[in-house]
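quick one before i forget lol
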Amino acid sequence: MGRPLLPKGRVNTSKLDQTSERDIARHQLEDDLEAMADAAKFAKRVRRRIGMTQLEFSKKMGIPLETIRNWEQGKRSPTGAAKALLRILDRSPELALMALS
């Protein structure tokens, strides 16, 4: 069975007290790795959805090929304008590609 549910806004203080700084650092690293993997999957899915190779996507977006590869391999995550561009391409690929032509 699952964990006992606490009332909303309550914290299991005994579990919290047992959590070490090392545990917190490990959890942060796990969360960061998961976010990187999610970003990699998203970048790759968007590129594939519009039917482009990494090289074609790189040229069309004006982004270095190595950057695209790093995103899709989870070595780096898109940030700022690149992240916004991927969201636009995901939601309105035809319109975004037309605007980039």
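fyi Residues 50 and 94 are 9 Å apart (CA to CA).
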